[in-house]
Design a protein that fits this description.
Elements (H helix, E strand, L loop, with lengths): L3 E4 L2 E4 L5 E4 L6 E5 L6 H18 L2 H17 L1 H8 L6 H20 L10 E8 L7 E8 L4 E4 L7 H13 L3 E4 L5 H14 L7 E3 L16 E5 L2 H8 L2 H6 L3 E4 L5 E4 L8 H15 L11 E5 L3 H13 L19 H15 L3 E4 L21 E4 L8 H4 L6 E7 L2 H9 L4 E7 L3 H11 L3 E7 L1 H4 L13 E2 L10 E2 L2 H5 L2 E8 L1 H8 L9 E2 L16 E4 L3 E2 L2 H11 L4 H4 L16 H12 L7 E12 L8 E13 L19 E11 L5 E12 L5
Parallel strand pairs: 7-8, 7-10, 8-9, 10-11, 12-13, 12-17, 13-16, 15-16, 17-18, 22-23
Antiparallel strand pairs: 1-2, 3-4, 5-6, 6-21, 14-15, 19-20, 23-26, 24-26, 25-28, 26-27, 27-28
Helix pairs in contact: 2-4, 2-5, 3-4, 4-5, 9-10, 13-14
Bound molecules: NADP nicotinamide-adenine-dinucleotide phosphate.
Length: 690
């Protein structure tokens, strides 16, 4: 079978020299791959001219819903991917991480739409007041880059590797060209076929290269983004491509990582933490046969516990049945191919020169349900390095298989130092129930790590583990790990957007951003905003309320109702040394009174008030002052109507199409000066319920 590339809207089998691809368990050839004949420049142009504009037209809400639809579609087809995934040597658990972990990433990114406006662009951070009179302000707008995301991926996660990256660039409104590692591209190809056939993505949003992508970087421009996951040597070679430098193209690199797991001195045998440590390390050594960028390569333990760890870990590793994942009881499959076995064996031999192998054997191990000589199998290998400050290979050589080294430490400073000797890692974990140890370790080691897991009995049950990058957190690490950041919730999406500072009058910036800016024109209409449907409310639309003169009774009554008898509100004799001249009104009273002024109580399209953002009490309010509210529609975010399955019970009021309207509450006094500012969030019904 010839794998196909998806280029410029067509499926094309590469011409010329084809690379044979093998079933990692049986050694049989299952496909060939070639990208010869593809015109990379034309593919990139197609993405920029066809996919980009279509995605940029969509709002974040629409892009999120597109990802959600895609995730639902792919999950319905998952059995197909599991069947193909087993040919990469993966067990069911390994495949679950790749397939369902990848699809889960689409879901997680789809949900992020709620953190974005109902626009194709994003307004970042706070307004910057740039003038005394308030007529000149600054802000930051973020727009999708008008280029293409080129994702060059490693062989170990043919599905997750693609989905965790494209989810993010699609959310941002940028098309992608995916280049999986050739070795396991047969699995990526199956899924991309389903994605394209589903027509859920706009044309040009996704293209696929199954063979080599050598030369693709010759065509990048400054609007493109390149991401690379793979070995540091390839990464460095690509990162120094002159075209990247010339065009200042962002290059996000995720490379080798010699991740460590540290056993806290408190976690002695007999504690729950000791058992957790052994379990976690064994799992991280053997899941995906150790071919995980986050796998534990260095096991850093207190000197006095080395023997206990070696024995306990050895016991668990001995129970790890290696073989054909289809066979019941098999816990570790094969590496992804014979090339990988050769590479890992070479690394193990290098490591053997400076440290002692205490578990496993390169030749002598058992394989269940498969021919050991044909499949890409390997035994777990455990080393001990007694002199880790002198024999430093374990901190530098990454054997990308089930290979790890126990390293002793004398005190916490040494443990921190040793963890940092990986010269930058994606992740490390510390297993301890001692908060002082945890804090000192985190503060000492964080500069060299992208993520730190602190594991103890309290979180173990729900912990996602040392090895799982989570879509809402950044994934990446400094130094050797490439210095990159992927995913990371909103942060990841913004990576594909250009942040531009914009300056002008508040009214002009309001019009450009569709977000009301303090000081901009306010328009009053006859009808109260609470009597208007979502579609009818205009940004900048304002209600100027009636006024209220504050009395001592207001303060006393509020103190009694709320039970808040803070001295500044109730004890006029206690104000010496404070900024207050007299009993000051409670900030929460000011806000509550404001609600009494701006709320229109008649039943209307406003369904509920569900919170506050950015609340500030900026000037003391005393009895005798007169307050009023300027209540202005600031921002609108529409929400899709929640869908329910047939027969499913619909919670009360949940079948309504509605959106969120943020209102700026500007409470001011008789001089016109603002005394309190807040943003309230209301849920407002649509007039059109279709
Ligand atoms: P690799 O050999 O460096 O290849 C990585 C990718 O680069 C592959 O898709 C490869 O394509 C492509 N590539 C190679 N030369 C290229 C060129 N001239 N132009 C464009 N693309 C090119 O790495 P690997 O063997 O697939 O992966 C194993 C390594 O990845 C390990 O060292 C591991 O630590 C690292 N890794 C890191 C992470 C992380 O998140 N940090 C995750 C997974 C793996 P071909 O397959 O066609 O050669």
């Amino acid at each position: 079978m010839k794998l196909q590339n998806y280029a410029q809207g067509k499926w094309i089998a590469g011409e010329g020299k084809e690379k044979p691809l093998f079933n990692a368990i049986t050694g049989e050839q299952i496909a060939t791959a070639s990208s010869e004949g593809l015109d990379f420049a034309a593919m990139m142009d197609y993405a920029r001219k066809v996919g980009g504009p279509a995605l940029r037209k969509m709002t974040f809400q629409e892009r999120g819903l597109m990802l959600k639809a895609l995730a639902m579609h792919l999950i319905s087809l998952k059995a197909k991917y599991y069947a193909v995934s087993s040919k990469t040597g993966a067990t069911k658990v390994d495949s679950w991480i790749d397939i369902e972990g990848g699809i889960g990433n689409l879901f997680a990114n789809a949900s992020l739409r709620r953190q974005f406006p109902d626009e194709s662009f994003y307004i970042d951070g706070e307004t910057a007041p740039l003038s005394k009179g308030g007529t000149f302000i600054g802000h930051h707008i973020m727009v999708p880059k008008q280029g293409v995301a080129i994702h060059i991926n490693a062989f170990n996660f043919p599905i997750w590797g693609m989905l965790e990256k494209i989810a993010v660039n699609f959310m941002a409104g940028v098309p992608a060209i995916v280049k999986p590692a050739t070795l396991t591209s047969f699995l990526t190809e199956v899924m991309v076929k389903d994605i394209i056939d589903s027509k859920i993505l706009p044309e040009g949003a996704l293209q696929l290269i199954c063979g080599s992508a050598n030369g693709i970087l010759d065509h990048v421009t400054n609007q493109d983004v390149v991401t690379f996951t793979g070995s540091a040597s390839t990464g460095k070679m690509l990162k120094s491509h002159p075209r990247l430098l010339e065009e200042a193209v962002p290059f996000n690199m995720e490379a080798d990582s010699l991740n460590a797991s540290i056993l806290g001195e408190d976690a002695v045998p007999g504690t729950e933490e000791f058992d957790l440590f052994i379990k976690e390390v064994q799992r991280e050594m053997t899941v995906k046969a150790g071919q995980k960028c986050t796998a534990v390569r260095r096991i850093i333990v207190p000197e006095k516990l080395v023997e206990d760890v070696q024995i306990a870990l050895g016991k668990r590793l001995a129970q790890t049945v290696i073989g054909n994942p289809e066979v019941e009881g098999v816990r570790m499959g094969s590496l992804a191919g014979l090339e990988q076995v050769k590479e890992v064996r070479e690394k193990v031999e290098q490591l053997s020169k400076t440290q002692k192998m205490v578990f496993g054997n390169l030749d002598n191990y058992e394989v269940v349900g498969a021919d050991k000589n044909k499949g890409a199998f390997m035994s777990p290998i455990l080393f001990i390095n007694d002199n880790p400050f002198v024999n430093t290979d374990c901190h530098n050589i990454e054997a990308f298989g089930p290979v790890s080294t126990i390293i002793p430490y004398k005190n916490l400073d040494e443990a921190i130092e040793l963890a940092k000797m990986g010269k930058g890692s994606l992740v490390c974990s510390i297993v301890t129930n001692d908060d002082k140890i945890a804090k000192e370790f985190v503060l000492g080691a964080a500069c060299m790590h992208g993520r730190i897991l602190i594991l103890n009995a309290a979180c173990a049950k729900e912990s996602t583990g040392h090895g799982s990058p989570m879509p809402l957190l950044t994934h990446g690490g400094p130094g050797r790990a490439g210095g990159g950041e992927e995913m990371g919730g909103k942060r990841g999406i913004l990576h594909y957007m250009q942040r531009t500072a914009i300056q002008g009058s508040p009214t002009m910036i309001t019009k450009v951003t569709n977000q009301y800016q303090y000081g901009a024109e306010q328009t009053e209409f006859d009808k109260h905003v609470f009597q208007k449907y979502f579609e009818e409310i205009q940004i900048g639309e304002t209600v100027i309320t009636r006024k209220h003169t504050v009395t001592d009774a207001d303060i006393v009554n509020f103190a009694n109702v709320s039970g808040d008898h803070f001295y500044a509100h109730v004890d006029a004799t206690s104000l010496e040394g404070t900024i207050f001249e007299r009993n000051v009104a409670h900030g929460y009273w000011v806000l509550s009174k404001a609600a009494g002024l701006f709320v229109d109580g008649k039943k209307g399209p406003v369904l509920l008030n569900y919170g506050l953002e950015e609340c500030r009490f900026v000037k003391p309010v005393y009895p005798g002052m007169t307050i009023g509210v300027r209540f202005t529609a600031k921002e609108k975010i529409s929400q899709e109507k929640k869908e329910f399955n047939e027969g499913e019970e619909i919670p009360k009021g949940m079948d309504i199409k509605k959106g969120i309207v943020k209102f700026l509450v500007d409470v001011y006094d008789e001089t016109g000066e603002t005394v309190a500012l807040a943003t309230i969030l209301t849920m407002v019904k649509f007039k059109n319920q279709d």
